[in-house]
Amino acid sequence: MPRYRSLFRTPEFTPLFLTGAAHTAAQTVAGLGLATLVYRATGSPFLSALALFGPSLAQLLGATTLLSAADRLPPRTALFGIALFFALGTAVLAIPALPTWAVFVILFAEGLAASLGGGVRYGLLNEILPREEYLLGRSVTNMAGGAFQIGGFATGGLLVALLSPRGAVLVGAGLYLAAALAARLGLGARPPRAAGRPSVAGTWRTNGRLLAVPARRRAYVALWVPNGLIVGCESLFVPYAPERAGLLFACGALGMLAGDTAIGRFVPARLRERIRFPLQALLAAPFLLFALDPVPPLAAVLVTVSAVGYGASLLHQEKLMTLVPDELSGHALGLHTSGMLALQGVSAALAGTLAQYTSPRTGMVLLALASLTVTFLLARADARGDVQVAAGRG
What we know:
Layout: H1 4-9, H2 13-42, H3 45-53, H4 58-65, H5 75-93, H6 100-128, H7 134-162, H8 165-186, H9 200-211, H10 214-234, H11 237-240, H12 245-266, H13 269-288, H14 296-308, H15 312-322, H16 329-357, H17 360-393
């Protein structure tokens, strides 16, 4: 079984790891500060949720227009440029009295850039690591994401309380700059993975090719929809408990860290296929108990247990990569990331709308029910597909 030590001995893995970690920390610190700014300015749960997860909506447009560039740009240059753009854009978000509409214009532009960044980053990871180490590599990057989310939300909460939400946004801009420097100074100059010029037509063509296979379609839906709906639940933490939102986000990151660690390092290959969907159902089940308006300590425990279910994403990614040719790995992983984040943005908007007309607690419960339903239907469809494949071989 591959071990963590071998990953960090692999050339370029460490700087790529640090680039992603700094980006995650920046996103959490700046996102919490910005969501708090918007909520204080507008009093709207919808706009607060959209400020935190709304940039993900732009991923949908990016996935249908820009994604062909993920395999056709030099990875180091692309990652450096995207992180630098985020640093500058986030610094602008900290300008006092910036109109709310201008905030969302900048967030939309950042979301477009992020749709390309995910494909470049994870395509490069797939290029750096041997295929048998990819799951462990994604586990480690996800674990780092969880750890830096814990630190980021905790730091963001302290900055909001002790300094100001605007100060948290500026710290996030500095962390994006650190990510840009890590990419520029640590990664080697590699050529693009695919030839040709990026184009909208090429993006559509490859998207169609990837989604034409039923097994790949199921893998994408499993990676996008159930998780996205639960992120919608999490987007309501600020209006649900304004003074404890940072703690709830940190608990979620802790649970995700635990789930990714267990799946990447301790779950044997023979069990992975069997636990994909049951583990994903764990994401939604604890949020059903928010219908009982749990006391704060219990709410924190429920959020932590729920987030362990994010480990199922590693298993769905592993399944997807067995179905994708190597030359399309960057595009395929970019489509996964962009679709996932787009669904998160849609779910955050839906969650904010539900909370606006009912309550944050009711919105969480309804989205959790929807997530469980989709997971159940996907598990049934996947089982039928396996039976048909086995029958065809027979």
